[in-house]
Specification:
This protein is α+β, with helices and mostly antiparallel strands. The chain contains 2 helices and 4 strands.
Length: about 70
């Protein structure tokens, strides 16, 4: 089974939450940190990403990159 991880360009994330809603494994959340623009960026807070990349596809600001590692 493929596993993955999500990298977020935090300085550009506007906390819209679309990626959080679309994630089938619910491994993303809005963080408590504040980026330079005053938003709380998304973060991957737990294991379980399946590298489906739905989050990256729905992001209007293209701030997510999904990496896949096959086990």
């Amino acid at each position: 089974m493929a596993k993955g991880r999500v990298e977020v360009r935090e300085d550009y994330c506007k906390s819209c939450g679309l990626c959080v809603e679309v994630c089938p494994k619910k491994v993303l959340r809005i963080s408590d940190r504040i980026n330079p623009k005053g938003y709380r960026p998304v973060e991957q807070f737990q294991e379980g990403c399946i590298a489906c990349a739905l989050c990256a596809r729905i992001c209007p600001d293209v701030v997510l990159t999904v990496y896949r590692t096959d086990e």
